[in-house]
Design a protein that fits this description.
Length: 141
């Protein structure tokens, strides 16, 4: 197992269409886990979610979160991120990021469609301020 460099984990997160598994904390302390589409933006990670989803409500109440992105193929790799969420409901920002994220996962030809669908009132842009990264590659090497 080898620790990834800063450049390596950023490249790993940006490659292909891997989803992040987002962990948040419910009001009663139970964990909640959900997959999210995301992009890196400089030193932040960004994704969209609905304000009234479990993850949206959890993050509005308690911005602490963790994310895991992994490669399930040998020799296996993962990036674990801990951070704090900053939420925005600014529609132009929400829609712009929804389109950019959609371009990654659905292709440029459908980015505008998904940006319009996910860039509406009630949707949030979540900007994760990354506090800690644990990134390991070559798990079985």
């Amino acid at each position: 197992m080898t620790a990834m460099t800063d450049a390596a984990w950023r490249s790993f997160l940006s490659a292909g269409t891997r989803t992040a598994k987002l962990a948040t904390v419910r009001a009663d302390g139970r964990p909640h886990l959900a997959p999210v589409w995301f992009l890196l933006d400089g030193d932040d990670l960004v994704f969209n979610t609905g304000r009234e989803t479990v993850k949206g409500r959890n993050l509005a109440r308690d911005g602490r979160l963790a994310l895991c992105v992994d490669d399930e193929r040998p020799p296996f790799a993962f990036v674990l991120i801990e951070g704090r969420a900053e939420l925005s409901e600014e529609l132009s920002e929400v829609r712009s990021w929804a389109g950019r994220i959609a371009a990654r996962y659905m292709g440029e030809d459908r980015a505008e469609e998904y940006g319009a669908r996910n860039g509406v009132p009630g949707e949030l842009l979540v900007r994760v301020r990354i506090d800690k990264v644990n990134a390991q590659g070559g798990i079985t090497d």
